[in-house]
């Protein structure tokens, strides 16, 4: 019994850590802390430039994080999981994405941070913090990492896929900064929020499905 309780506690610890980090980061942004200002300016100076190839890449690749694209990809993933009778994973995927994006909408309007006052390279509407593209892509591709770890048996394929999935949100976050539609702190906040919701979703998946499946398999 003690081992079971400890396992359940362990699965929520990472989620709690990321929630705390996200809360601290959001408070710093909302209070217009000097650290955030310095961080944003430093990262903008490193990332942004006028290279035509970089501009073309950023303004094209950023579309992969659009709300409609993420929504369509999520629906397709949920349908595939359901058709494969991975119903718990389908619920995990849908629940995590709904929670992350719904909470993001609330925080955006609560903090109401304006977007950078520079010329935007792509169309962008609404408030700036946290970056919706970063939240959505971090959550979706984070889910794909979890599913890959759980469902793919071949270690080499698993490793390659996880690395590929991890690259997508990083590149999408980069394009949002490069395109001048988000501050770097918006992107970091989006990543922290997305990861926190993945870990929360995984905790539910582990408690209510994976753990019981493991217990049943040990009986046979």
Task: Pick out its properties.
220 residues, mainly alpha, disordered N terminus, 80% helix
| Tally of individual helices | 8
SSE class: mainly alpha
Overall geometry comes to: globular
Strand proportion, as a percent range, falls in under 5%
Largest pleated sheet: none
Computed CA radius of gyration, to the nearest angstrom: 19 Å
Q: What's the count of strands?
A: 0
Task: Flag low-confidence runs.
Answer: 1-8
The helix/strand order is HHHHHHHH
Percent helix: over 70%
Note down, in words, how this protein is organized.
Helices cover 80% and strands 0% of the residues. By secondary structure, the chain is mainly alpha-helical. The protein is globular, with a radius of gyration of 19 Å.
Short description:
By secondary structure, the protein is an all-alpha fold.
Helix and strand topology:
Elements: H1 2-30, H2 34-47, H3 52-61, H4 67-83, H5 87-111, H6 132-151, H7 155-178, H8 184-219
Helix pairs in contact: 1-8, 3-7, 4-5, 4-6, 5-6, 5-8, 6-7, 6-8, 7-8
């Amino acid at each position: 019994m003690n081992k079971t309780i400890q396992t359940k506690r362990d699965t929520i610890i990472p989620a709690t850590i990321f929630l705390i980090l996200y809360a601290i980061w959001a408070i710093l942004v909302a209070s217009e802390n000097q650290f955030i200002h310095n961080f944003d300016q430093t990262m903008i100076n490193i990332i942004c430039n006028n290279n035509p190839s970089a501009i073309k890449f950023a303004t094209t690749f950023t579309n992969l994080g659009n709300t409609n694209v993420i929504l369509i990809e999520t629906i397709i993933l949920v349908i595939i999981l359901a058709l494969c009778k991975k119903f718990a994973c389908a619920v995990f995927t849908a629940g995590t994405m709904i929670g992350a994006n719904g909470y993001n909408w609330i925080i955006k309007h609560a903090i109401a941070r304006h977007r950078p006052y520079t010329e935007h390279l792509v169309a962008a509407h609404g408030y700036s913090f946290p970056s919706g593209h970063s939240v959505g892509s971090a959550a979706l591709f984070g889910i794909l990492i979890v599913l890959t770890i759980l469902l793919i048996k071949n270690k080499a394929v698993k490793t390659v896929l996880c690395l590929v999935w991890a690259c997508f949100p990083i590149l999408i976050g980069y394009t949002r900064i490069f395109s001048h539609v988000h501050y770097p702190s918006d992107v970091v906040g989006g990543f922290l929020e997305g990861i926190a919701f993945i870990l929360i979703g995984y905790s539910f998946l582990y408690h209510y499905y994976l753990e019981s499946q493991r217990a049943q398999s040990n009986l046979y």
